[in-house]
């Protein structure tokens, strides 16, 4: 039949025979005549000597076999098909009963005639014929298989949607054997899944006497709650069991493997792959979400070696939470297996200690990392461009009144060391390096205005509260930022100066866990406004002291990030930073030029606020709050060296110390090295 192009001729014949229609009459008990068939018109069950298998029914045959009359090994050869008939093995089991009766009769015949050791000498031709027939039928019975079995071979999917009841084995050694209805897999058949096979329940619950899994068994459907019940042995041979779960709290629905009965057990090794079906992620309580159930005396190694099941990748994530697999309940009792997003602390019930996923501290620390990078790019007027007594004049010794504008550039290196309070208390340690270059667009004796561009790159190692462990080293963040700024400055002959800067930033980042299990990439932008002023006072000789005040406002906007099992919306705090400083500077004439050394002391105070990382699922969200605001003290020293009439070199090195607050910001050595050329 063209309908079953992947079958052999013998298999097609089996389909036609086992789906045939019972005829109107059947053989009588003596086998010498016929009587009315009470099942006339129905699908044939057992062939009889008069009609055989009955009249073929193409309508039924289109739906696949009606029975297996022995082993049925089918190679779907890349095709997908559905068999919707109720497949039994009634005929072959009836043949077994007939053969048992026939064997008993033959044994009696051999004993009564003295044939138990063979024919005696001088046996008649009739005896020889009867003996030959009897021994031939005996040999045939010895090779006969009295149960119908199914073996799925080759790629492609074969779906069973009938109520099947054959008693032989089911082996999936290639492609997929899929359920199209509840209990479509024969509950009387021992199932085996080979390394190249998949047994797919497709969301329909099934009950089997035993299952050996070297391949893939999937329960996942459109919604969680499917059960696979095994009343005998479940043996995992490095196979995979896929379960669908609405990852949330302990009451969440989940697919389950159920071992039922004193003879039921789980052994070997199986990897559980959990697919999140709409769960937001939440803190579990008690034992957690049940994945493997042991009922009525069943065992699963949960009270012995605890090795029958492992979770793929060690954890599965949803929302802000990381779930791990645990054998036994919260008290360590029982044979069930659970998913928990909470840690067990000491004996007794599970305490409410969440196991946040590793991305949570990394994303929580991100806004502060970017803000510190933007402040490093901003610096202060003197750090960006070096000292220039009398802006717009020829302070390098140029006696001409020509060049007033200047172009400048510097190398920036800043250390990141932050520790913040909040849900996961993230801490950062890393370094950013980059370049900044600018030019005056307009300048006169007291005023100048210009633009600059800059770029910072680096990475920051992050630790925080994750997987139930405070201060866990979770991963690193690769940071890439580009800046565009505009500035305007004023100075006068009394030593007063004022500086205003508007800076925009474009940010890219990649956060990756140290164990390689998680990564996230995103982007954002920032706006920074700075107002700075200072007044120098002479101390005597060529030394001056200069109090400074700087006010900075930052606004940071980060785009949403898609993680496995969650979307993260980040709401970074917009806040103010005030810098109050005191700078001591001098002026020393040298053969190489004019050197202007300085030392400065600064106190930074940032306004308090909260960065929020919102982990969003289909039904709600979980907010991770991280506090901002704190005080830091900076000590720095630097100098500007004017070389010739137009060129200056300038440099600074400093260190930041955390002084208090919810966000403690400190640093290693921060450094800047630049050059300015007048034109």
Gross morphology: rod-shaped
Low-confidence stretches: 390-400
- Helices, by number, come to 6
CATH architecture of the largest domain: Beta Barrel
Helical fraction equals 10-25%
**CATH class assignment of the largest domain:** Mainly Beta
Q: What percent of residues are in strands? A: over 45%
Describe the protein:
With 679 residues, the protein is mainly beta. It has three domains: 95-143; 201-355, no CATH class; 359-678, Autotransporter beta-domain (Lipocalin, Beta Barrel). It has six helices and 41 strands. Strand 36 (609-616) and strand 37 form a beta hairpin.
Layout of secondary structure:
Blueprint: H1 9-18, E1 25-27, E2 34-36, H2 58-61, E3 71-75, E4 81-83, H3 90-113, H4 125-143, E5 149-153, E6 157-160, E7 170-172, E8 175-179, E9 191-193, E10 197-200, E11 206-208, E12 211-213, E13 216-218, E14 227-230, E15 233-245, E16 256-260, E17 265-276, E18 289-295, E19 309-311, E20 316-318, E21 321-327, E22 337-340, H5 359-378, H6 381-385, E23 406-420, E24 427-443, E25 447-466, E26 469-491, E27 496-513, E28 519-535, E29 537-540, E30 543-558, E31 561-563, E32 566-571, E33 575-585, E34 588-590, E35 593-606, E36 609-616, E37 621-628, E38 630-643, E39 647-661, E40 663-666, E41 669-678
